[in-house]
Fold:
Amino acid sequence: MAEIEVDALTRAQAKAELAHLADVLGKANAAYYQKDAPFLSDAEYDRLKRRNMAIEARFPDLKRADSPTDRIGAPPSAGFAKVRHKIPMMSLADVFTDEEIYAFDARVRKFLNFAPDAPLDYTAEPKIDGLSLSIRYEGGKLVQAATRGDGSVGEDVTANARMIPDIPQTLVDAPDILEVRGEVYMPDAAFAELNKTQAAKGLKPFANPRNAAAGSLRQLDPQVTRERPLKFFAYAWGELSEPLADTQLGAIHHLARLGFPTNTHNALCNGPAEMLQHYRQIETERALLGYDIDGVVYKVNDLALQKRLGFRATTPRWAIAHKFPAELATTLLEDIEIQVGRTGALSPVAKLKPITIGGVVVSSATLHNEDYIAGRDSHGNPIRDGRDIRIGDWVIVYRAGDVIPKIKDVLLDRRPPDAVPYQFPHKCPVCGSDAVREPGESVRRCTGGIICPAQQVEKMKHFVSRAAFDIEGLGAKQVEMFYKDGWIREPADIFTLEDRFGHGVQQLKNREGWGEKSAQKLFAAIRAARHVPLNRLIFALGIRHVGETASLMLARFYGSWQNFHTAMEQARDHDGPAWQALMGIDGVGEVMAASLVDYFHEEKTRAALERLVAHLDIQNVEAPHVAGSPVSGKTVVFTGTLEHMTRAEAKARAEALGAKVSGSVSGHTDIVVAGPKAGSKLKKARELGVKVLSEKEWLALIG
Ligand code: 9MJ
Structure:
């Protein structure tokens, strides 16, 4: 039957076709990923997906909860489907001290241009130590539940969430579209009970209630989830068809009225002194709550102010997590091991007599660098009053949240008489090359570069890590094994593995731990990983000083691999526009810029990069497109004095509207917003013929 043009479809036809496409594309996904037996060509698959999107664009209200548009890939055979969060699930910045709370309040006030004594309410909410869940309701019915994942893409755990009695299946008088966000957790008593059952069955006990909750929710068989006593607290929201309230606390009350459990210890505080008072109060009640909390979350109560404050890359400006102090334990330092990282850094690791801290067994801790072991900071000033750390010492270890355990101090009165100061190696323990310290650097680095096996392996482990290529079935362990066997030496080799094995899978299959199915699955995952968003590729390269957030900023700025690559080559000239543009990107300083330029200049890395890129389909990244925004995708520079808002707010608002805000004027600049006292940037804009607006004209433009 001939296909009807999308423009000519009736509503009823569109609805029927969307249902059909969801079904066909769902099956095609399963066939490709799980059975490795595709029945659609790539081109036909893409065409159907585009048609689905076109129909959704014409009839947005007919978009289905199980729309193929929102599904990225399919469950990798025994796994969960991925779900893209329409509104990202944010994480919170963590702080530990009172001063940091005062600083948070000061930052918020500065951004909003509020006087230090102007009234400003915050909510204080116990920070539940579970795992975040986003639950979507349409027309009052639960249609989807997803974990946070990396904040943009989570896992579809709808069937499991339906098994949690705290989570309503239907809502009365709810907004038509409502995404409720909160924490799934396991009460302490239920956790103890579960571990008893685990032990009776001869199974491994869970380390703590959070792990038990995560393990219970992420069950492929929802019946297992049903048997686990999980609970839920609502404290946030994602997409909404109408607002819940004007304030954070009002919204939480609204969620409570709709039938969601909300925390009874949430409070309203005016300013940091009251916030800290509430924190102390919660701290004393902590042990009696019956569930684990790991701190207190403060949020600006007024939702209009939250909106003005907006977000940094991954965290909101209007909230912060005040964590409880780390837990301490004393144990024996049995050995010091030197690990060589992907950049050649020699990192000392304390091997400890295993000890439980906060329910987690700890057997190693970071020792940072050689100065730290010797009892000095990077400026040569004493730390721990100059006490050094020796093998055989008793040490105080602490753990804050999920971070790597650290050594707080050493107990000199328990030091064995024969303990000797630790000699930090001056040779790489892996390849034997000299390990040197550049002046002013605290880190000693192996000079072996590409010949050092440790650096090669670590680079590839980074390459496949979660925020990078994230290849299912190819983790750190497998990378090490494949490296040892000589199967992979550099990232490009990952993508030729299947061909080198002649599709036969035979070699891999015969390896311990690999069967036909797992091998096929790995190759399918590697094939799927060829389609990689630019930001993930940049991060995966492991360029020094270029982290996940910076990679995203770079990808959004340059858009395509071609642009990025060319710009990095051109940026060698520090007087040229490419270097100026790079330095103008938010969060890019001299050190990072120089590191990027060096990376793209080095002959061997360039060649390896070329070999890699030949296997990839690199997806362009756009600054988030904001529908109806006149400045979406435009590059804007603010200069001079702004009179209606702080510079920070002006920038945040422009970014929320999809604009790229740059610190310097170049040929790429679209608009310069110039206030009084504007100087050289305004002059340059005039020279280049860039559009110049006053602050008032800018505000009129963005409405
Ligand atoms: C917890 N874990 O209890 C948030 N959270 O808000 C509370 N987490 C949060 N709020 C925005 N109470 C992002 C995370």
In short: The chain has five domains: 6-11+327-414, 82-323, 452-529, 534-619, 635-702. The first strand starts at residue 82 and ends at 84. The chain has a mean pLDDT of 90.
